[in-house]
Known about the structure:
The structure holds 2 protein chains of 2 kinds. By secondary structure, chain A is mainly alpha-helical.
Amino acid sequence: MTRTSGDDLTCRELVEVVTDYVEGAMSDADRAGFERHLGECAGCTAVMSQFRATMEATGRLTEDQVSEAQRDAMREVFRGWRADVAAGDPE
Amino acid sequence: MDATVTASGDDVELIWLLRQGDEATFMSLVERLQPMMLRVARMYVSSQAVAEEVVQEAWLGVLQGIDRFEGRSSLRTWILRIVTNIAKTRGQREGRSAPFASLAGEDLDAPSFDPDRFLGSGAWAGHWSTLPADWAGAPEARLTTSETLDALRRAIDALPPMQAQVIRLRDVLGWTSDEVRNALDLTETNQRVLLHRARAKVRAVLEREMEIEASS
């Protein structure tokens, strides 16, 4: 996914390396080419705003709740373990 | 790259409380991690029931191993990695092969945008034929209506499992890339490719939602 030079990065190529860029996984030369392209391209700048908004909206989602049955089962695991420890059973 | 994540101050306290046998601490970890643990386990084993057994075994492993945990990763990473290891072993024992490609999805090289959106030829080949909309000025309310969030949730549920786990851990739960690749036993590159694919697909869903709302 990494190019040897960012100089001739097209828009079509840029959108595939957005995550390499935001994750800090680019060489200095590629990062400079990426940023140079963004500086001159309203379309790709818009795409960056779309990825940012996507990450932010995804961050609004919440994790599922634990079911009551699962909660009870895990409490049993815990109490069983503690009883074993108290009884001096080898782990 | 990211500095290696080690146990935080909060973790140190949780670890200490677990070692004391504190049930409330254990149950708070169950609340936080159980849904993700079940999803990770389910990738490797044949049924939800087996995934539940794997997670139960993992918690027992956490309790029995907590005295030896050295805090070289965050606590949550260590716990999820235990699930990953047990689930993989269990899946192998079940004779269930879960090749990376089937978990990761066969579409890792698919384009993030429809190729029609770029000029096909001429001096500007590969550049936008029509500019994508800038969302920087989009009212936040439009991006986070309950309809939009439902669509995002469905989009993530529909992803190949490893793409779904990576985007949930990174963008829903806020884990770092190091934590995620350690927890799921991925290379740095794979973690990044999976994340890109997942975000690109969720972005496309969000784009459709934005268009629907703009036209209604």
